[in-house]
Write a structure and sequence with these properties.
The chain has about 375 residues and is mainly beta. It has three helices and 25 strands.
Length: about 375
């Protein structure tokens, strides 16, 4: 489906929801730019991910295990077919992504905390989204299941990125046990890559290594909860939580080690030093970091006409800091500056997406969470 048609469909759907949004609209500033914030939906329980559909509707996940469609200002009932999730701590139904051929196949991917022997672990499922009077998921199949499950309730990671070749990158945190991030026989603390059917694609860095999990792409990550495919550098970028400081932006490369918990720019919550310090041979440096922590979450690349000043920049939500960070980039994709937007205005930001019309859509991570649209003002 071409970009002009997608924009036309999206615009029609957005106009249909204007009555609801008008009652929840307010003027704000996006840095120096006048903007308007509109609440497109409310009453969501810890929403985690939002993804636009070609017809202008959007899919939204709620952490307890619900998937809904937001269309014309209304939320659908929860869709049937969602896998059973371990709704505990930071676990539950988490990210979602559309297959590159979604317009013809209806295929979506979901990440979630999967219950199993020993506790829970991150899993990836694929399914077919069937629209109609009663939307549902069909043909649900688990294509990845974390091997070593545990009772810890944190650090599931879970962002999914579908690369242009159709392969899936996804993230898993260290599950609250930092030493797992340096164990290459363990899926934890890693960026992973699989084919759409769950098989191991060509190009993974450790094919046939008996002591290394074949899905691994890179290791040494604490808890990456933001990830995006960057068209400028034609590569994956991630953002991950540090401890007390040391949140990192990385460009994970095949076979490299990003250091956690050997090196970090933060400290443990106790205040003690992490590992050997900020650098050591054999471990990669972050391309940007925050100290103190902002608790970064969803991440996107701005590509739209509404805010041309931001073209190609990263937009990253923050939970603890309750804002959106814009990381300014140069023509080569290097990060050259930072601007903090909407500081404390919306609350905890879990996900950030760019709509087809160039507006910014945000999810707030609350028990009464919202979907918010930020557009350019007068």
């Amino acid at each position: 489906m071409n970009k002009i048609l997608i924009l036309a469909l999206f615009t029609a759907a957005w106009l249909a929801s204007a009555e609801f949004a008008a009652a929840h609209r307010r003027a704000i500033q996006a840095g120096a730019i006048p903007a308007t914030a509109e609440t497109m939906a409310a009453g969501l329980e810890n929403p985690w991910s939002l993804e636009f559909l070609p017809d202008g509707a959007a899919l939204v996940t709620e952490r307890p295990g619900r998937l809904r469609i937001l269309e014309k200002g209304e939320l659908s009932a929860p869709l049937s077919g969602v896998p059973q999730v371990a709704d505990s701590g930071q676990g539950g139904l988490l990210d979602l992504a559309l297959a590159n051929d979604f317009a013809s196949s209806g295929t979506i991917y979901m990440s979630y905390a999967e219950p199993g022997p020993g506790g829970a672990g991150t899993a990836i499922a694929r399914a077919t989204l069937v629209r109609g009077e009663t939307p549902a998921l069909q043909n649900v199949r688990i294509i990845f299941s974390m091997e070593k499950k545990s009772g810890a309730g944190q650090h599931f990671g879970s962002r999914i990125v579908v690369a242009p070749d159709g392969t899936l990158f996804f993230t898993i945190g260290d599950r609250g046990d930092r030493e797992r991030a340096q164990d290459f026989s363990d899926h934890a603390g890693a960026v992973l890559r699989i084919a759409p059917d769950g098989s191991i694609p060509a190009g993974n860095p450790w094919p046939g290594e008996a002591e290394i999990q074949p899905e691994l792409w890179s290791k040494g990550h604490r808890n990456p909860q933001g990830a995006v495919w960057d068209p400028l550098t034609e590569s994956l970028w991630t953002v991950e939580h540090g401890a007390r400081g040391g949140d990192e932006v990385n460009q994970p490369q095949a076979g490299l080690n990003y250091g956690w918990p050997v090196i970090s720019y933060g400290r443990h919550y106790s205040g003690l030093k992490i590992g050997v310090g900020t650098e050591a041979e054999g471990y990669e440096q972050p391309l940007f970091y925050w100290d103190p922590s902002i608790a970064p979450s969803g991440m996107t690349v701005y590509d739209g006409d509404m805010f041309p000043e931001w073209q190609g920049d990263f937009l990253i939500g923050a939970l603890r800091a309750e804002l959106v960070v814009r990381l300014e980039r140069d023509a080569n994709g290097n990060i050259v500056g930072e601007e903090r937007l909407f500081d404390g205005f919306f609350g905890r930001i879990r996900d950030v997406k760019v709509a087809p019309d160039g507006a910014i859509w945000l999810l707030t991570d609350e028990s009464d969470g919202s979907v918010i649209r930020v557009s350019r003002g007068e």
